[in-house]
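Worked example (supplementary).
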Amino acid sequence: MTVKDVKTRDAASGPSGLLGTSIPNRDGRAIVTGRAKYTVDLQPPRLAIGKIYRSQVGHALITSVDASRAREMEGVLDVIVPDDVAHLPLVSTGPRLEMPLLAQGKVRYVGEPIAVVIGETEEAAEAALAGITVEYENLPLLLDPELAMEADAVLIHEGYDDVDGNIASRQNTKNGDIDAAFANADVVMSERFQTTKQHAMPLETHAAVATWDLDADFITLWSSTQQSHVLRDTVARVFSLPSSKVRVIKPYVGGAFGHKTGLNPNEAMAIFGSKRTGRPVKIALSRQEEFACTVSRNPQDRRVEVALSKEGRILGWREKIIQDAGAYAGISASVLGLSSWVTAGPYDIAAIDLEAVLVYTNKPPSGAFRGFGNPQSTFARELMLDMCAERLGIDRVEFRRMNVIKKESLPKRNVNGLLMKTLPIEEAIDIATEAIGWDALNRNKGPNTGVGLALMIEWGGGCRWVDAWDSDMSSSAVTMHPDGSVFVTSDAADSGQGHATVFSQIVADVLGVPPDKIDVSLADTATSPYGLGTFASRTMVVQGTALFKAATRIRDQLFEIAAADLEVHVDDLEVDSSEHRVRVKGTDIGKSIAELAARTHLAKGSLPGDTQVSALVATETHDTPSEVPDANGYGNFAGN
Amino acid sequence: MRELDIQMSVNERPVKQRIGVNTLLRDFLREDLELTGTKGACDDGMCGSCSVHLDGEVVKSCLVLAADANGRSVRTIEGLADSDDVLHPVQQALLDEFGFQCGFCTPGMAMTMVYLLESGFQPDQESARESLVGNICRCTGYDRIADAMILAASTMGENNA
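After joint prediction of all chains, the assembly is encoded as:
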């Protein structure tokens, strides 16, 4: 068996077998021909280009901003300075609104936006950046979280009751009898692990094109985003408009990786620039800006202590975690919460005690990026387990097998409340070691070569760990037209996953309509129902389930008419995908879906009883059975 | 800004335009000709998403001035397919092997692959990956892109046989 065999194993398939099979990707043709339009490709008529003037220093008071020279430069339409946006509210991807759209009197990291030039061309806007002069009064620069935590450290943020010095938040996760675990330990191991500020680096940078229709007072924003609706509502709040006056459209997105969530300054400034100039405005970040000034993974510093029995059981796990937020905390507290929550991984550990702090520093903000705290946690744990195994003289795979949650104990909650219903972790070890040739790799490894194995828990869904929400919802809608063809929409925001393709498979399986008669349009707030967007591996679990429910409602409407026609009970009916009809189970008697759809809309007299004509439209929401964690960080976070 | 009149063949069609002397070939294609299949992602020649052919050689169009393409012939992703129905074997192979995810690197990847395969390169997984070192993909991990290149090599070999 090879790794490739493992990844292409058969998936479960639906009634017509389309779901779980490979069909051509619906976006593929546009992509391979270069016709797919990303936000950076949009060029509406009269487009103006915005460029951001960014802080040259990491921590300073701003004493003056002079844009007079820039305003006089050729091709400059407008220059937006901090005073122009002082009336706009602060923003955040997390619960504490703390980030100004342009720095207000203070900069907290190199690259923080201070001003924006709107130019006729990119060249003109970029040239005019040199016409802006900012004077600073430098403050001590805090780059090391431990130094930022010291009692006499200069404050990066002031005026928040729940911020203690530069500590943005404290989180303790304590479950089980940790004192007993360490008192009973035969061996205690301790080690320190540090992770870095990795960048997601999608190939398409953050990009936005905005128009503000001054007559209708209506904003249209095309953005490279993962969260159309959340973004829409934030834009509405920032510009004091009802959400009904904002439309967010997600074109093709050139990679996202968690890094294109929430409102980003380029989006807000493109909108505001359009209001001031009356022109469509595009602000797309350069690679340098993307790298230096947008959200990255939170660095963590983890000091781990493990209580072990000499037989090789993990009795208790203790960690002190310092997480670097960067200059604005954003969603980092949720990253830290989740990182703590997954610390026990798939292991059967009776007691855990984690003390975690989130610290402001003068680095660019950190936050969501693939794994959302899981990689940092898993890295520390799995290296620690290797060290424990070595110390106890037990093979490291065997040591893991001894300590994972066993299949026969399921369903079971782990030490942090994660509900494990199915956990094929022992099989996973078998498959992985066989696929990579674990024994041979270890026998034959050359000098300076490492061979490792790590276990982790990955989940789908999980918005209840985000402080702002007691919800893990998203929605999908199905419209069947009178000719039986179907329109599908959802808040799901594809960035290459193939949502449109798999959604067409779900609908085809439920409704018996071939994929080529299904149109899928996603993440446009004018047409898509509300939802939290695409991240945390949630789309198939959440939007996919909502779509299944919506399609099933349409199917049930068709079944009622067909059942009356054919004088059978609805339970006797099934969808016949090959003939695109509803049929009596086990017979050749049926009704075409197109005929049923036409009659539902246009032929009242042909409908049974007092059934009224109606449009075939169904919108469904799915919320996962996940739980808001309690004060000890206990709760079932996973949505699947 | 000094301006310059240039003319060139783009996807076998003649193009005449007045441009700024410092206009990049990439920006000329994307903004003046609205051929946005050619992307740009790094601005310094690292990522390969702006790869096009200039007189039959693959180049990174962010490192070439439009003025330097004066009198020459340019081929972009929009010029690969014979028609809407008949894709270039490299495009078809990328589709068949699902050699893309977000698709942002795909046009540049395709242009590099076409150049190499038209030059007679016969790739296997390892050499395919090595040959695409100048084109960065952030989604796929390259496996399926390399598979697509191998498939395209075989289709193009059959077509030429």
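Two points are worth noting when inspecting this output. Residues 25 and 66 of chain B are 4 Å apart (CA to CA). Chain B has two domains: 3-79, 89-160.
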